[in-house]
Amino acid sequence: MKKAWWAWLPVLILLFLAGCAPPRAEMVKTASIPSGELDPAVWGKVYPLEYDSFMKTKEGGQGESKYKGSELKDKLSEYPFQLVLLEGWGFGIEFNEPRGHVYMLKDQLDIDPSRRKPGGVCLSCKSPYAPRLKEQMGLAYFQQPYDQVHAMIPQNHAELGLSCADCHDPANMDLKLSRWFMNDALKALGKDPAGLTRQEKRTLVCAQCHNTYVIPRDQNMKPVGLFLPWQKSQWGHITVEDIERVLKSDPANLEWKHNPTGIKLGHIRHPEFELYSNGSVHWRAGVACADCHMPYERVGSSKISSHHVQSPLKDNMRACTQCHNQSPQWLREQVILIQDRVNNMYTRAGNAAAQAAKAIELANKTAGVNQELLNQAKQLYEKAYYRVTFVGAENSMGFHNPEEALRVLGDGLYYADQALMKAREALVKAGVQVPDKFDLELSRYAKRGTKGVPYKPEENLEFTFDGTK
After folding, report:
1. Dihedral, CA atoms, 346, 349, 351, 353, nearest 10 degrees?
2. How far is CA 377 from CA 83, 136, 156, 190, 381, in A?
3. Which of 89, 287, 339, 384 could form a disulfide with 256 if both were Cys (CB 3.0 to 4.6 A apart)?
4. Burial readout 254-277 (b: 16 or more C-beta within 10 A, e: otherwise)
C-alpha cells in the first residue's frame, strides 16, 4: 500500500532545509607545529585564516584620527618641544610613530643608529629570538653591540617582527607570556603569572611589550639587564609617581643626561598597559586589549579573533559597537574629542617644560646664580619631564584612560611652571634680564643624527582650544 504524499512531508522538509542551510563550519585540520618554531608562515599552514589576518598589519594607515596610527611619522616634528626635552638622548635624534607588528624589527634596523646604541638589549621586544638569545648569552646579550647580537638571528629572519610564538603555545595555542621581564614584573606586583585568567592573558600578551621599561647601567654605562619599574605598584594601580620613585631609587636606572639642564634622567617608554590598567573605565569593566584591537570576525563560515591588530578608528568602530549601541560616527567623534582635550593639555605641559629647560640652561651658564633655587628648579623640571613623557610616549593620545592622562598632564604643567618660576627667580637674583618667553631655538635641530632627519614644521600637531602655544 502506497503512503499518502503528506507522509513524506517531514523528509521533504529536512531535505529542503539541508539544501538551503549554509555549510557547517569545519574544524581546522591541524598539523603539529614544532616546539620552538618562530616562523609565522609555518604556523600559517595550520592556522591560515589567522595568518592571513595578521599579514594585513602591513597595511598601516592613520585611520580617521590625526593622532597616532600606524604610519612612519616623525613624532619630533609633530611635537617640536620634544626636541628640547630629549636633547642628549637617542629619542631626540629620531623618534617615529610605530608601524604594524610585521615591521617591528625592520623599523628598528632602519632608524638612526644612535637609537640602537645600548646594544643587544634593544632586541628584547623587537625579535621573537630575544628570549632565546638572552638564555644563550647571559649578560653578553645586554652588553654586546646591537649588530653583533642581531647577527646571531638566522639570516632569513633578520627582519622578522612579531611571531605567533610570542603570544601562543604551539602545542595547544593557549596564550602565553614569552618575555621574562613580564613574568618578573607581575611577581613584583604580587600577581602569579601561573594563575592568570584567559581574559587577563588577552591583555598581558600585549602588555609584554606595550609597557615602559628600564635598562639599568653599570658604572661604564653598559646595560646590565632590563626590567619593568613596577616594584612600588599594585595590580591595577601603576602610577607615574610609582614609576618615578623606582627610577630615582637607584642611579643605575638613570640612562641619560639631558644637555640643556645637565640632569641625569631615566626614561618612560610607551606605557600603554600602565595607563590603561590604572582604573580606566574599560579596565574596570573587564575589557581586554584584544576585545578592542583584535575583535572577533567572520571569515567565510569560520569565526576568528582578528589578528589585524589596529585601532577601531580604522575599522569603522566595529570593535566598539560590540558593546556600545551608538552609531560609529558618534563613537568616532567621542574618541577624537577626548584626544583633542588630552592634546590640548599635552601641548601646554610640553611647551611649559621646554620653557623651564631653557631657563635652567641659561641659569647653568650664569655666574653667581643661587644654587639652591637652581637645584629646586631642576627637581621640579624632572617631575614635569616624567609626566609629559608618560602621556606623550603612550600610544593613544590619552584615550586608554582619559581621566588619568589629564591628571598626569595637569601635574606636569604645574611642575613645569614651578620649575620655570624657580629658574627665573635664580636668574633675576643673579642680575640677568629674563625674557618673557624663551626661544626654543628649534633651528638648532634642523638636521638630526647621521641620517640628517629633517624637522618638518608642517607636521606639527600641537593644539590648544584657545589657539595659543
Report:
1. -140
2. 20, 46, 52, 36, 6
3. 89
4. bbbebebbebebbbbbbbbbbbbb
436-462 burial: b if 16+ Cβ within 10 Å, else e: eebebeeeebeebeeeebebeeeeebb
Which position has the grid cell 575583535? 295
What residues have CB less than 8 Å from 7, skipping those under 6 apart?
none
Three-point CA angle 221, 227, 233, nearest 5°: 125
Tens-digit pLDDT profile for the chain (469 aa)?
Answer: 555 655 555 555 554 544 444 444 445 445 689 999 999 999 999 999 999 999 999 886 656 678 876 778 899 999 999 999 999 999 999 999 888 899 999 999 999 998 999 999 999 999 999 999 999 999 999 999 999 999 999 999 999 999 999 999 999 999 999 999 999 999 999 999 999 999 999 999 999 999 999 999 999 999 999 999 999 999 999 999 999 999 999 999 999 999 999 999 999 999 999 999 999 999 999 999 999 999 999 999 999 999 999 999 999 999 999 999 999 999 999 999 999 999 999 999 999 999 999 999 999 999 999 999 999 999 999 999 999 999 999 999 999 999 999 999 999 999 999 999 999 999 999 999 999 999 999 888 777 888 778 888 899 999 999 988 7
Nearest-angstrom CA–CA distance, 79 and 297: 36
For the CA atoms of 340, 344, 345, 351, what is the dihedral angle to 10 degrees? Answer: 140
Q: Which residues pair with 96 in a beta bridge?
A: 74
Full-prediction pTM beyond 0.85?
yes
Other Cβ atoms closer than 10 A to 172: 7
Longest dimension (CA), the chain: 121
